[in-house]
Design brief:
The chain is an alpha/beta fold. It has three helices and four strands; from the N terminus they run E-H-E-H-E-H-E.
Length: about 90
């Protein structure tokens, strides 16, 4: 049996989280994280996973590298806004 992938959203922007939840409600059960330290335990519990990563978050840049190294089976989709850092 193939289980559907968990969808995890890392963002500190509550408006973005609300919009993502509304859009993805019918496809995924979305798990929201706003603290980077919670990502590792959540990924241990929910795999395979799709990680939606808001690049405007404080620790998001480091999370991309960390997830690629530690969790190679997690698909990472990054979001940002025009003219935002990084």
């Amino acid at each position: 049996m193939i289980f559907p992938a968990a969808c995890i959203l890392y963002s500190e922007d509550s408006d973005f989280v609300s919009r993502a939840r509304a859009y993805l409600r019918s496809q995924f059960e979305l798990r929201h994280l706003d603290n980077a330290r919670r990502l590792d335990p959540v990924l241990r519990q929910h795999r395979p996973a799709i990680l939606l990563l808001d690049l405007r978050g404080k620790e998001s840049r480091g999370l991309v590298e960390q997830v690629q190294v530690e969790w190679p089976d997690v698909l990472i989709i990054c979001f940002g806004t025009l003219r935002s850092e990084p």
